[in-house]
Design goal:
Elements lengths: L1 H29 L2 E6 L12 H21 L4 E8 L5 H14 L3 H9 L11 H12 L10 E4 L7
Parallel strand pairs: 1-2, 2-3
Length: 158
């Protein structure tokens, strides 16, 4: 339905735009800044039956690149982290729901559905994303801008 499309775009793309728009003047005034969008591997690859989500995440990748170009000379870096499946309470709930709906075990959902495309066959951990955020905020990342960084256990390498 059209409303579901609009809601997914609002949550996953427009929210990034509005947050950047609100924060940027303060970063410009400070003379530097770091913008890090948390996207999804679906910013780089597609999956069937996820048109709105994939479109929104591709949009975040495009937004990241455009804003990086626009703010580069203001000493503001703009990057996006594109995780594969991260072990979160939401994902654990999806595992249980998928197992029930398909009549398979949770282990089969993880192995054969969720992590089938991730060569490491393990969920990304929240701390891995957090550590990349810390790095991107630091001085060592001052020349990294406009990057879409997959953290995906090798999914995007295929």
């Amino acid at each position: 339905p059209a409303q579901k499309w609009d809601d997914i775009i609002a949550t996953n793309l427009s929210s990034s735009f509005h947050t950047i728009r609100a924060a940027t003047p303060h970063m410009i005034a400070a003379g530097w800044g770091r913008i890090i969008n948390i996207s999804s591997l679906h910013a780089l690859v597609a999956s069937p039956y996820k048109a709105a989500y994939v479109a929104a995440k591709h949009g975040v990748a495009g937004l990241t690149k455009v804003v990086a170009l626009e703010l580069a000379q203001k000493h503001i870096t703009v990057n996006s982290i594109a995780p594969g499946y991260v072990e979160t309470p939401l994902v654990k709930g999806q595992v249980a729901d998928t197992a029930r709906s398909r009549g398979i075990t949770e282990e089969e959902v993880v192995r054969d559905v969720m992590l089938a495309a991730q060569p490491t066959k393990k969920f990304i951990q929240i701390h891995e994303i957090a550590e990349l955020v810390v790095f991107l905020c630091g001085d060592a990342a001052a020349s990294i801008t406009g990057a879409i960084m997959p953290v995906d256990g090798g999914w995007s390498a295929q």
